[in-house]
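Q: Could you fold this chain for me?
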Amino acid sequence: MNSDVATLQNIADTLKEEPMASQRVLAENAGMSIGLMNAVIKRFVERGWIMLTNVNLRKLSYAITPAGISELTARSQTFAKRTFAIANRYNDTLCNAVSEAKKQGKNKLVLYGKSYIKFLLIYACQTLNVTFIEKSATDPIEPNAFCVIGEQNDEAESKRLSEQGCVNLLDLIEE
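A: Sure. Below is the predicted structure, expressed as structure tokens.
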């Protein structure tokens, strides 16, 4: 069912860009054969996700129905809920890690390198009144700081920082 919804999303995106797209164009954009696209469209018509209209004797027009839009919306909401749940779990985990570091007398968190979830570290630091600093992965290690390795560092840099006492951000959120 998930791949069907992904294919429906692909068709919807194609029709948004090219409302009179042919079955060939829909198939190419979805990365499938015309025959398979034909079968998929028939299945989607049966489900009520797509409506066909004859433009002329040789041309059909495709439209996503309200039921199809509803299916795409439900998928988007499920994705958003799952993403928010993960972000909340990461946030709780990072707040706990920063809190533990603060109990050990570390009032500064230094992020070495880049991180996609840096905003969660900043939030944890602000919430717990800990100073947040971002540095290059090649900068010297800050003494008396909670040193965290960003997940965008290369493996060699991460290993070097880990050997110097830094904690890998990915290890924190996987615990």
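A (continued): The longest strand covers residues 50-54.
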